[in-house]
Amino acid sequence: METLVKPTITVEATIQATLKAVWTHWTSPSSIVKWNSASPDWHTPEAGHELKPGGRFRYRMEAKDGSTGFDFTGTFDDVRPHELLTYTMDDGRKVAISFAQVGQETHISESFEAEDTHSLDQQREGWQSILNNFKTFVEKKHRLVKFNFDIFIQAPPEKVYTAMLSKEHYTEWTEAFCPGSYFEGSWEKGSEIKFLALHENGEAMGMRGHIKENIPGKFVSINYDGVVGSGMESEAEAWSEAYENYSYDEENGGTRLTVELTGTEEYQEFFSSAWPLALNKLKQICEQ
After folding, report:
1. Residues 270-283 pLDDT 10s
2. CA distance 144 to 251
3. Does residue 115 sit in the same domain as residue 128?
4. pLDDT of residue 1
5. Which end of the chain is more exposed for a tag (fewer CB within 10 A), N or C?
6. 211-227: per-residue pLDDT in tens?
7. Among candidates 109, 83, 103, which has minimal Cα distance to 13?
8. Which neighbouring-strand residues pair with 221?
9. In terms of C-beta density within 10 A (0-12 exposed, 13-18 middle, 19 or more buried), how is residue 8 classed?
10. Chosen domain end from 100, 122, 142
């Protein structure tokens, strides 16, 4: 009996992120649940796999209204980190995904054997939509944007500087970011410092950096090196080039505090609302 050859469909995308970042988000279950859907009314609430040849995977895909869903399951055939991933779905169809660094971007090419229920165009559109969703997710996580905030505080620069960096007041003014925030380390130039908060599981999670400059009462600069906490590996590379600067300028007997920082695009809305709240709290502390 003649075996019918299944048509192969290929979808592609070029992503503004490093090969390492793209591979990490493609293969991390904590990331997969955030991008693996073809339309806004679908999602992947559960994802799990054993990333090795012969390892199994299961991604639960459902309509958000709970009306329908299915398990996307199969077995990995070839796993070459940052280069190639192939697997066989439980219906026997083959999939191959290649990853290649192209300058500062990463190209993904995904080829899969078509099924015979939906048209080739419908299948191509669905798989391309998922890939486009992945591209958007990764780029928002890794594209750094600049933020600027400032506030006038009726207090001398030395007082604002001291209050902002003291353990006594740090937890108070940073509550807008996360209740219970604190820091470990030193504000001295060249020192390592960690900005942390306790996760609901009791683990300390947050950012790690070092003090690039500290001129008391005038200027503080922090360069971030990465993240702290399990499950945050996919965030590390994006934040490794971020920074945060505080400038204290005397103005009309008080202080003009200016904060300049970079952060990933996904935090744009959060920072835009949280930083003004934090600075207003600091103002209250300093003007008491």
Report:
1. 999 999 999 999 99
2. 31
3. yes
4. 42
5. N
6. 999 999 999 999 998 88
7. 109
8. 213, 245
9. middle
10. 142
